[in-house]
Amino acid sequence: MRTDTPQAVNLADYRPFPFAIETTRLVFDLHPTRTRVSAELSVRRTGGKNEPLVLNGERLKLVSIAIDGRPLAAGEYGVDAERLTIAEAPDAFVLTTEVEIDPSSNKALMGLYMSGGRFCTQCEAEGFRTITYFPDRPDVLSRYSVRIEADGKFPHLLSNGNPVASGSLDGGRHFAEWSDPFPKPSYLFALVAGDLDVLADKFITMSGREVALRVFVDPGQASRAAYALDSLKRAMKWDEEAFGREYDLDLFMIVAVRDFNFGAMENKGLNIFNSSLLLADPQTATDLDYERIEAVVAHEYFHNWTGNRITCRDWFQLCLKEGFTVFRDQGLSADMRGAAVQRIKDVRALRARQFAEDAGPLAHPVRPSSYLKIDNFYTATIYEKGAEIIRMLKAILGAPAFRKGCDLYFQRHDGEATTVEAFIACFAEASGRDLSGFFGWYEQAGTPSVTIETAYDAAAGALTLTLTQSTSPTPGQPDKKPLPIPIAIGLLAADGRVLRDTEIVLLDQAQMTVRWDSIPEPPVLSALRGFSAPVNLSTDARPSDRYVLFGSDTDLFNRWEAGQTLARDLILTRAAGAPDEVGEERYADALGRALVDDAAEPAFKALLLALPSEPDLALMFEAADPAALHAARDHLRTRIAVHLGDLLRRLHGEMQINGEFSSDAAAAGRRALRNACAEALSADPHAENLARLLGHFGAARNMTDMIGGLYPMVAMGGVPREKALESFHHAWRTEPLVLDKWFAVQGRDPNPDALERVIALTQHPDFEPTNPNRLRALVSTFANFNPARFHDPSGAGYAFLADEILKVDAFNPMTAARLVEPLGGWRRYKPELGDLMRAQLERIVAHPNLSKNVLELASKALG
Ligand code: ARG
Ligand code: ZN
Prior knowledge:
Elements: E1 9-10, E2 19-29, E3 35-45, E4 53-56, E5 61-67, E6 70-71, E7 78-79, E8 83-86, E9 92-101, E10 111-115, E11 118-122, E12 142-151, E13 156-159, E14 162-168, E15 173-184, E16 191-194, E17 197-204, E18 210-217, H1 226-243, E19 251-257, E20 264-265, E21 270-274, H2 287-302, E22 311-312, H3 318-337, H4 339-358, E23 370-371, H5 380-397, H6 399-413, E24 417-418, H7 420-431, H8 440-443, E25 449-457, E26 462-470, E27 485-492, E28 498-507, E29 511-516, E30 524-527, E31 536-539, H9 543-552, H10 556-575, H11 581-595, H12 602-609, H13 614-619, H14 626-643, H15 645-654, H16 665-681, H17 687-699, H18 703-716, H19 718-732, H20 736-747, H21 754-761, H22 772-785, H23 787-790, H24 796-809, H25 813-817, H26 821-824, H27 831-846, H28 852-862
Parallel strand pairs: 2-12, 18-19, 19-21, 22-24, 25-31
Antiparallel strand pairs: 1-23, 2-3, 3-9, 4-8, 5-6, 5-9, 7-8, 10-11, 11-16, 12-15, 13-16, 14-15, 17-18, 20-21, 25-26, 26-29, 27-28, 27-30
Helix pairs in contact: 1-2, 2-3, 3-4, 3-5, 4-5, 5-6, 6-7, 9-10, 10-11, 10-14, 11-14, 12-16, 15-16, 16-18, 17-18, 18-19, 19-20, 20-22, 24-27, 27-28
The structure holds arginine and zinc ion.
C-alpha cells in the first residue's frame, strides 16, 4: 500500500495569494546541464500580517537567497521538495534568489528543457516552479523583464514581450534583454535559445499599428513555415472582424520544437508549437495537417485575449480560456472552410473523445471542483464541451446579444484573473436574461439524453412534440437536474420539401410539450439541426423518415447525421446477429444517390462515405464486442464497395487533380473524396480495384494522396503491405514528421498480426519513446483507433499498453497519463474483456513510484 496519499486541490479552498509580485526580473545564464537562474521579485504584502511567504519550487538547487540585498541566514527560510517558505516576511521588499537547474536531463518536457539542441520552455500549468521559486498560480500577475546569456552556439535568445537590448559578452557569449509590459501569470512565461531559421512578415492592425511577425524553425525549414505564417495573418484579421480584438505588442513570435507534450502554447508574444502543428508543405503534410495548423495557430493567437489579457483565477476555471478559445478557433475554421463540413468534423471529434469521456469513470464537469494533478484536466470535456457551452449560449441569446456580452467581458475584465461566474454574468447583463440555470452546464458532468416523440393530428393540422431529458449518474454526481438545452428543429414533407423552417426550442425542464399548428401534411422531423446541443438524441423516426433527411434535409449536418444513424443501426443489428440485408441494399442505394448530387461539395461527400468509426459504435453498445463490431462494419463496407463499385471508381478518377498543388478547402475536398473512394474500394480487393489502389499509391505526388494510398496497402497485408511500408520508409527516413505517419499507419493496421507488429516496432531504431509525437503515433494510435486489435481476446493489447504507460511514466508522467484513457472504458466492454482491462489498471496502480498523474487517472478509471 502506498502511504503518501497525494493531496487533492479543491475549488472551495481558493484563497487569494497574500502578496503581490509587482515586478519580476529574471536572469538566465544558460548551460545545457548547469543553468543558473536568478530572480528578483518586488514583493508587497496584500493579505494578513502573519501570513508567511510561500513560493513553489521543485527540482531546484538553491544557490543564494536575499531580502533587500541581505543574504538570509539558515533559520530565516525553509526549503523542501516543493516549496520555499519565509515565515516572517516584511511588508514590502525585494526577494532575490539564485538557483541551478539541469535542462538537458529534463525528459518530462515541463519547465526549461532541451529539444534538438535548443533550449525551450513549457510552463502551463505548473512548469515555472521548476525554473525558479515563485507563486506559480494563475492569479499572481507580474511584469516581467528577462535577461538571457548564452554561448554563441545559441544565436537566437527569445522571451516574452519586446526586445530591449542585445550584445556580446566575453568568451564567445552573448546576451539579450526582453521586457513584457503586460502583467502575466507565470504559466505564460517562455524562453527559447538556439540556432533557428526565421520567416519574417508584418501585420497592420485595425488601428494602423505595425506588428512584426516571426516564425522560428529548425535550420533549413523556413519554407515549411509559410502556411503557418499565412494562417497567423488570417487569424489576426479574423479576430478583429469577428470579436473586435486587436493585437497589443509590437512583435509576435512563434517557435516550432520537435519535443513537446501537447499541441502548442500561447505564451505572451512567444507561442511555442509542436512542430507537427506548424510545419507544412505538400510533400510532407496532409490536408488534415494543414487544417489543424490553421486552427491551432488561430487558437494560440486568440488566447492573447481569451487567456492572456484575461486569464483564470485558478485552474478550475480552465474552460474560461480553453472552451472560449476553442469556440473561437472553430468559428474561424467554419469561415475559412465551410460551416457545415466543419461542424460535422467538430461533432465527430466531440463524440469520439468527449462523449466517451463523459460516459466513463473519468467523467467530470466542464468546471471541475477537485483534482490531484491539473495536467490531467486538459481534457476533451474542458476544451470541446467547454466550446459547445459557448455555442449554446450564442444560440440562446442570438448573435447580437452574444457579441454585446463578449464586448462587456473584454472591457470589464481586461488585465484580470477571473472566473466562469464573472464571464456568464457579462452575458446575463448584456442580454437582460437570467442565466442561472444555464450555469448547470458547467457544474454537471455527463451527456444528457433527449427524446422527442411526435404526434400528428391530421384533422387539426397540428403537430405535438413531447421532449424529455435525463442524464445518467456520473462519478460523485448521482442526481442530475434538467439543463436548458437549445434544440433547433425544422420540418420536411415526405417528398423532401421544406414544411417549416428552423426554430430553436429551449428544453429547460425534465419534460415539455410543444404544439405547432398549420402543418398541412404528416411531417418528417429534423431535430437538433447543426447539433445545436451536446446531447444524445433519440426520436420516434422510422428508417423511411431518415431516408427523407438523408436525401434532402436543407440542414447538411442532419443530412449527414441521418446517413450515419442508418449505417450505425445496420452495423449494430448485424453485430447483434440479426443482419438486415434489405436495409443494407437500401442504404447503399441512397448513399449512391447522395454521391452523385451535383449540388453537394466533395468534402461533404467524403464525410457521407465514411462509416461511423468503431470506437463510436462501441459507445452505442452495452457490453461491447469489438471483434463483432469490426466484422459487421467491414461487412457493410464490402456491401457498399460491391454495390457502388462503378460509381466509386468513376468518382475516384474524376476527383484526381492534375496540375499544381493547392492547400485550399476546395482542392482538399476533392482529395478527401478521392481518398474516401480508395478506402471504400479496398473493401472489395479484386484485380481491378487492386490495380487502381496500387496506381493511387504509386502515383501520389503529395502526402495526402500518399497516406490515402498507403493505408489500403497496409490493410491488404501480405506483399503489398511490406512493399509499400518499405518504400515509404526509404523515401522519408530523414523526415521525423513523416516517419510519425509511418508509425501511425501501422498502429491502425487492421490485420490479425498487427499487435505483434506494433510490439516489434517499439524496438525499431526509429522508435523514440522520449519523443511524444513518435510515442503517440504508434502507441496511442493503436490503443485508440485500432479496437479490433487492441481488444485482443488474450488481453495482450492491454498488457502492451500498460507496459508502455509504466515505461514512459518513469520520465514523462504527463504523456504517460494521456495513454491511460483507452483502458478507462473497461465497464463498457463484454466482461471477458473488461476484466482483463481492469487487471491492467490494477497492475498500474500497484506499481511503485507511480506519478501522481498516472495514479489519479488509473485509480479513477478503476472507480
Ligand atoms: N494552453 C495550451 C492550449 O490549449 C495547452 C497547454 C496544455 N498544458 C497542459 N499541462 N496539458 O493551447
Ligand atoms: Zn488553448
